From TrEMBL:
Domain of life (superkingdom): Eukaryota
Biological classification of the source: Eukaryota, Metazoa, Chordata, Craniata, Vertebrata
InterPro entries, sorted: DUF5921, GTF3C4, TFIIIC_delta_N, TFIIIC_Znf, WD40_repeat_dom_sf
GO cellular component: transcription factor TFIIIC complex
Sequence ranges assigned to domain Transcription factor IIIC putative zinc-finger in this UniProt record: 592-642
Protein name according to UniProt: General transcription factor IIIC subunit 4
Organism: Buteo japonicus
Coiled-coil intervals, chain numbering: none
Residue span, DUF5921 domain: 372-449
Length: 675
């Protein structure tokens, strides 16, 4: 009767606030191409949230309520063969229903592809993602969501699996790729010690395979609770094939299991790494780029475990990271590594001081760099992802270095120029634009005057008006003229590097001499930025024109200013791209001298295509242009990219599928999502 979840109306205890656990989905699951957040609250309610607008989180669905309704319709039976149980008044039945509806953990799978049959019997590939929810009784509910996930209508199915594990504590997805065949399963750990993998059978999932039967990784009931499980895909250099490394934190030890598929079947090698911590492991994280594992205990010690392959299995080299040397005496509560392994985030509170615990706990998130600038730059240059937004932790290290040194290192500039010459991928052009923008930002001077400090004019007025300070009319005029001359000198000296002193900041002669080279440098960088932006714009215009050519008939109005885009591309005599000229020739031949111009919605005048950023009619009405389709956004509502580089319009029901597909793209300058 004191349970706050089952008896919220009883009000015997105040409602519980906070979260037990949270889990992020892979990128590309919501309408903006970003992550979904599954949150388990303290009152055992599982909900899914999304970030629709920039700083606005919205709850999309309450899975606890939906799952409860399904159980109610099935009379709380997992299968039709189950015998009916007692009534809710029976305490054992009450406990059974409570345990089968109380989530313990939930984890997202990777994005997989399903086939959907349309009305004309045509099949199309649709992205989907799975969410596994582990309950107190050991059952696992596997939810399948169609992407992009919009709410309850995006739920495809929900299947319940009986794990057979008593007192389950943790859950993780096992995803393995062998000979271009993807296999998947669920790893479940128990508070009593056992760990095993369960097969997950799904229909209509393209290229999806699973195990034939459960695989026990550790079966001893040694009373060492499994705290955390991570699955890391690796490549075995001796066996010349891919393998899967499963690591689990059990007490103060790390349990590892190497899974490898050979002609003989599934090979399992397992062992424990001991001597890491003197206290139980409170958190564990893994860098999936290189397989490095990080563990921490509450005494402020973090261990780095590096897997090294042997002929048969593997071994770990580990080293100690003492946070006390960086942050002082601290207690650690959790760690996480950034997606590309550039940072380690640590949640800390104050440690003991003179043998005494602190009175209050102040939780802080500290960041420790795990890579050098050179390593981050090399990884960005050799990246297979080719998306700056997905590697934002690496670009942050590069940004910090350039802001600090106020120049782009020579080796990075030369390597990037070689990549652009040899490959020509727009990813390297976007990387170059990123470097130039940070360099321009580092060259800009801070304001010469502190914004919060009172101005000189106010001080002089107060002195002249203070009692006992007589002043004649001539003195006031002279003071006014001096004040005006000083103000004009201060205005002249704005933008220079002037020391902040108590006296009036007059420009020195040496500053005037050094000002022109700095301004020239800024103008030079600005010209390079505009040149790179123009190159990226032209490349995207070619892509848009290619879509127009492929998806339109001879005299169809595409609503895209095709003629204007063609004229804009050919307006620069210095731009000589044979591919663009051939494409434009085919499009103009198909259009047959038709222009299909855009019209201003206010005055019905023609909107000429003279600028890639905005459209101005003859009456002076200004409309911003969509950077994805180059249409004018003639509405009060539009979208912006995350870094506010560009704007894009919203798709409309009248838009064909290929235009909607164009509008789903990221920013052409910074790879950021648009919302």
């Amino acid at each position: 009767m004191l349970d706050r979840v089952f008896n919220p109306e009883g009000k015997s205890l105040p409602p519980m606030r906070g979260f037990k656990y949270s889990s992020w989905s892979p990128l590309g699951c919501d309408a903006n191409g970003r992550c979904l957040l599954a949150a388990l609250t303290m009152d055992n309610r599982l909900t899914i949230h999304t970030n629709l607008n920039r700083l606005q989180w919205v709850q999309l669905v309450d899975l606890t309520q939906i799952y409860g309704e399904r159980l109610y319709e099935a009379s709380y039976k997992l299968s039709k063969a189950d015998t009916p149980r007692g009534e809710l008044g029976d305490f054992s039945e009450f406990q059974r229903r409570h345990s089968m509806q109380t989530p313990v953990r939930m984890e997202w799978s990777g994005i997989c592809t399903t086939q959907q049959v349309k009305h004309n019997n045509e099949c199309r590939d649709v992205g989907s993602v799975l969410l596994a929810v582990l309950f107190e009784n050991g059952n696992i509910a596997v939810w399948q969501f169609q992407l992009p996930f919009l709410g309850k209508e995006s739920i495809t199915s929900c299947n319940t699996i009986e794990s057979g594990i008593n007192s389950p504590s943790v859950l993780s997805w096992w995803e393995y790729e062998h000979n271009n065949r993807k296999m998947s399963g669920l790893i479940v750990g128990s508070a009593f010690g056992p760990v095993k993998i369960l097969p997950v059978n799904l229909k209509a999932v393209k290229g999806y395979f699973t195990l034939r039967q459960p695989v026990v990784l550790w079966q001893e009931m040694d009373q060492l609770p499994v705290h955390s499980i991570k699955c890391i895909p690796l490549y075995h250099p001796y066996q010349k094939c891919s393998c899967s490394l499963v690591v689990a934190a059990r007490g103060a030890y790390v349990f590892w299991c190497l899974l490898l598929i050979s002609k003989a079947g599934l090979n399992v090698h397992n062992s424990h790494v001991t001597g890491l911590h003197s206290l139980p492991i409170v958190s564990m994280t893994a860098d999936k780029q290189n397989g490095t594992v990080y563990t921490c205990s509450s005494d402020g010690k973090v261990r780095q475990l590096i897997p090294i392959f042997t002929d048969v299995a593997l071994k770990f080299e580990h080293q100690l990271i003492k946070l006390s040397e960086v942050f002082g005496s601290v207690r650690t509560h959790g760690i996480a590594v950034s997606p590309c392994g550039a940072y380690l985030a640590v949640i800390t509170t104050e440690g003991m001081t003179n043998g005494l615990h602190p009175v209050n706990k102040n939780y802080q998130v500290q960041f420790v760099t795990l890579k050098t600038f050179e390593e981050a730059a090399a990884q960005l240059l050799e990246s297979s992802v080719q998306n700056l937004f997905r590697q934002v932790d690496l670009t942050d290290l590069v940004r910090w270095k350039i802001l600090k040194d106020k120049h782009i290192p020579q080796f990075l500039q030369e390597a990037l120029d070689k990549k652009i010459e040899s490959c020509g991928s727009t990813y390297f052009w976007r990387f170059k634009l990123f470097l130039l923008r940070i360099l321009y930002q580092s060259m800009q001077k801070a304001p010469s005057e502190v914004m919060w400090r009172p101005s000189h004019e106010d001080a002089k007025i107060l002195i002249s008006d203070s009692p006992g300070m007589g002043s004649t009319e001539d003195d006031q005029e002279e003071g006014t003229s001096k004040q005006a001359s000083k103000q004009s000198l201060c205005d002249t000296g704005k933008g220079m590097d002037i020391d902040d002193t108590a006296d009036d900041s007059l420009p020195q002669s040496s500053d005037i001499g050094g000002r022109e080279p700095m301004e020239e440098k800024l103008l030079e960088i600005q010209a390079q930025i505009e040149a790179v932006e123009m190159h990226l714009t032209r490349e995207h215009m070619k892509r848009v024109l290619g879509e127009v050519y492929l998806h339109t008939w001879i005299t169809e109005n595409t609503s895209i200013p095709t003629r204007g885009v063609c004229d804009f591309l050919m307006s620069d005599d210095g731009y000589d791209d044979r591919t663009a000229r051939v494409l434009i020739g085919h499009i103009l031949k198909k259009m047959n001298k038709q222009t299909f111009p855009e019209h201003c919605s206010l005055c019905k005048e023609i909107l000429p295509f003279t600028d890639r950023k905005q459209a101005v009619c003859s009456n002076g009405h200004i409309w911003l242009r969509c950077f994805l389709t180059y249409q004018s956004c003639q509405s009060l509502v539009y979208r912006r990219c995350l870094l506010h580089d560009s704007i894009a319009r919203h798709p409309t029901p009248e838009d064909p599928e290929w235009i909607k597909r164009l509008l789903q793209g990221p920013c052409t300058f910074c790879d950021s999502p648009v919302f």
